[in-house]
Amino acid sequence: MSAGQIAALIAAGAFVLLVLFAAIALVKLGRTLDEATIAIRKAHENTDPLLHGANDTITHVNTQLERVDGITANAQAVSGNVSALSSVFTATLGGPLVKTAALSYGITKAVRARRKGKDGEGRHSRRRRKGGRG
């Protein structure tokens, strides 16, 4: 055997090893792709019930929000009615009640001042000047 033939045999053996390593890598890559395909299929199968559950939940939340909107509309109407009622009360009874309370306060203060003996010497009485008219 000549040196060229030995080199060709070594090159052929190296090529066979290279093909063998490439085949092993391709087989492992094929298994990985199969596992990925199975995982994607399972994820797809499990997302359908999850999405249906999410859709039901969103529908329920929307129903509750509509109820809350109704409640807030009713509360707004009640607060408007209370405001109108307080305005009516203030207009019809508020003024006379305030006047009555002020009159009552004034009379009470005057009676107390009179009982203490300040009726002639109170703040609002006229003082006589020295040497002046009376």
Automatic annotation (TrEMBL):
Listed Basic residues bias regions: 124-134
Superkingdom: Bacteria
Membrane-crossing segments per the record: 6-27
Keywords from the named record: Membrane, Transmembrane, Transmembrane helix
Pfam families, A to Z: DUF948
Region (Disordered): 114-134
Protein name: ABC-type transporter Mla subunit MlaD
Organism of this sequence: Saccharomonospora amisosensis
